[in-house]
Amino acid sequence: MGAAPYGPGATARYPAPGRPVHGAPYGYAYPPFARPGYAPVVPAPQPVVDFSTGVHRLHWATMPLRVLVVVGVFLAVAGVTLLDFGLPFVALLTMAVTGVAVLGAFGGWWGLRFRVFNDALVLERGVLRRHAQQVPLSRLQAVDIVRPPLMYLLDLSELRLQLAGGDDSEIRFRYLNRKAAEQLRASLLASAAGLSGRTPAAPERDYYQMPFGLLIGAMALRVPVLAAFALLIALGVAGIWVGEPGVLGGMLPLLLGLIRGFLSPLLLYMTFRAAISPDGLRLRYGLVRSRMQTVPPGRVQAVRIVEPLLWRAMGVARVEANVAGYVGDRQMESSVLLPVAPRWLALSLVNQLFPGTEVSQVRLHRAARPSGAVDAAGIDDTVFVTRRGVFCHTTEVIAHARAQLVRLSVGPWQRLRGTATVYVDSPPGPVQVRASGRDPVEARGIVNAVVTRAGRARRETVGPERWATRIRG
């Protein structure tokens, strides 16, 4: 097997712009925000708050909430110990701590001001000593609205801005009125796209709402969950049968594992809903803590479609992605684009995220010496696709325009086997695109093909910044 499938003469099979795609919810491979000639639709309602003019502060309820947190922590940590000095002393000390907390909360609330000015978010902090920070909205990677249970009751929201630049590049607004948070999100996304900050929230179209029965079935039909449940039942029966309570102690780790692997995802994605709008992909989920995640166009760097053994019989899959701006725990928390969905819908979403391709039609070529039951790779003019796995099949897709580094690796064991591995790196995340078990000549052909197409893609698209001003008819 040589480099011909990836050489200059290779042909890519994907639909022309506007060609219908079988099974796609809207009938076309292009998403609304990438369709040539698309013009954003401005809805009739006017903004609740105009963040493009004037200076704004957080909601006033931020102050009493901070005071309650400080006083609660003080009483929980030192209150019991201080009871030995008498209740009046504890009451006076609590009043002093409350006074200091009130001053600190008021200073923090009054000192934090923000405004949207000239395609940038301007933050000013401090009372006696002012500190100003100007954040170009071209660095905006994602916008999340989080509503913990208490904030849900108070009709407040926390707005999180993910910026390019690493782990310290997140900006949080705690807290804003729910409607004000939604309007600020719309204003920031519009400014980042090159539109006016007064542009109201973009309209959206429902893409997928997860059935609750499908979520339960998919979470239960996983080998680790089934094995833990079977072992839990076996230990319980054995403990009762032999009359040895100590055996029941082994049930606790299994029970905690089931809570983490089954109950936690169930509560997290019970209300999952995905929608597509001109300003990006919108995800809403969370039963205990409500969350709305918006990923602007072009911010998804690489995608992974995961099909566990038992899920393949159901025809469902999970879609994960590397989203620029998320790092660490936030990356793992926000990497799931579709927790459980029909496989055709998962493929359709990838087509929406990477316009100009149809992943199911990319011709995949098996490795010369595969390391598993499935080990294949393919390329077209838009994406590089790999597929591997024995029990769990994993399909990984990266757009050529998003490839940051292309590597060819040959380890000691690979030298003995006469194989090589090609890595196509993207920003950090759960997806690592690689093609293993390749003949060295073929691997070199893959590297050359990806590098060539990546250079061409970067010349044709200057990036996702100000995407709304670059749409051509």
Structure, explained:
This is Putative membrane protein. It is a single chain. The chain is built from 12 helices and 20 strands. By secondary structure, it is of the alpha+beta class. The chain folds into 3 domains: 4-31 and 298-469, no CATH class; 62-205, no CATH class; 212-269, no CATH class. A hairpin with a 3-residue loop joins β15 (374-379) and β16 (383-389). α5 runs antiparallel to α7 (251-269) and α6 (223-242) packs antiparallel against α7. It starts with 61 loop residues before the first helix and ends in a 13-residue tail after the last helix.
Structure summarized in a few sentences:
By secondary structure, the chain is an alpha+beta fold. It has twelve helices and 20 strands. Helix 1 packs antiparallel against helix 2 (87-111) and helix 6 (223-242) packs antiparallel against helix 7 (251-269).
